[in-house]
Amino acid sequence: MRVNVRQVLNDKNPKLARWMPGVLLNWLERIIHQKEINDFLDKYGHLTGIEFCNQVIQYFNVTTHIRFLEPIPVGGRYVFVSNHPLGGFDGIILMKLIAENFGDVRVPVNDILMNIPQLRQLFIPINKHGHQSKTAAQAMEETFQSDIPILTFPAGLCSRKIKGQIRDLEWKKNFVVKAIESKRDIVPIYFEGRNSDFFYNLSNLRKKLGIKANIEMIFLVDEMFRHRNKTFEVYVGKIIPHTSLDKSKNAHELAQEIRKHIYNIPLSFSEI
After folding, report:
1. Hey, is 137 helix, strand or coil?
2. CATH number, domain at 182?
3. What is the pLDDT of residue 271?
4. Which end of the chain is more exposed for a tag (fewer CB within 10 A), N or C?
């Protein structure tokens, strides 16, 4: 597998590909780091799953410190829920950490990401642009009914700058619904990280102009390369038993409460 911007454009929209000037194509190849990615895939593209995640983390020379507010017993049936500040790299790091500490991991993702063969075995596909297929729905149900740890990012999209703070958008309620249905306890995670000011400023400008397409997402690969040599802090809060979820509140309300809770997790460590 190799990344080829021109081929993708030709396959998806031949008319657009013919119209697009070479200087713009060159810019796209540069902004998604096509050469660097292909060089990496030539060397490590044969790796899969957590081994591939490990190699990505080594390639970027990233260090992660994980802190547990209390011990999380191995062998429990958990849904790990996290904020999504980086939009991809945080997923790779958390998949590695969860698999190392709890033996395995699966992540519900946009079905477009199933086109990454190296990570496919860790993903549960979600159709974001149509009806969920019977096969995908069955795979989701079987995974939640299993004992495999599940990691999810309820915001779906990566965090934006909201009123001067880096925050997730509204969380979707599905993780609460599935946790209750499958009798899985919830483990809240706060991942400390951010993208560049350019990314957030572009996002806010796009919204002010009334542009619905998330054009800033084009820069997420470039943002990933900006994280080279960084250190990230990961804070794991106390288990939220599925039996403790307030039955007087609906799943959407509970999801927003847990979202608010994860941003306060680091404060709990300062009180210890």
Report:
1. helix
2. 3.40.1130.10
3. 66
4. C
Distance CA 104, CA 95 (A): 8
Residue 5 lies in a domain: no
Of 223, 187, 181, nearest to 202 by C-alpha is: 223
Is residue 30 included in any domain, yes or no? no
Instruction: Quote the domain boundaries for residue 214.
Output: 50-270
If one counts the domains in the chain, the total is 1
- Taking the C-alpha atoms of residue 82 and residue 94, their distance in angstroms, rounded to an integer, is 9
Q: Is residue 60 part of a domain?
A: yes
CA angle 196, 28, 192 (to 5 degrees): 20
For the chain, residues with pLDDT lower than 70 are 127-133, 271-272
Candidates 10, 115, 99, 3; CA nearest to 49 is 99
pLDDT tens per residue, range 176-217: 999 999 999 999 999 999 999 999 999 999 999 999 989 999
Cβ 196 vs Cβ 115: under 8 Å: no
pTM (two decimals): 0.92
At residue 160's C-alpha, the angle toward residues 157 and 162, to 5°, is: 135
In a domain, residue 228? The reply is: yes
For residues 79 and 185, is the Cβ–Cβ distance under 8 A? yes
Residue at token pair 């590695």: 96
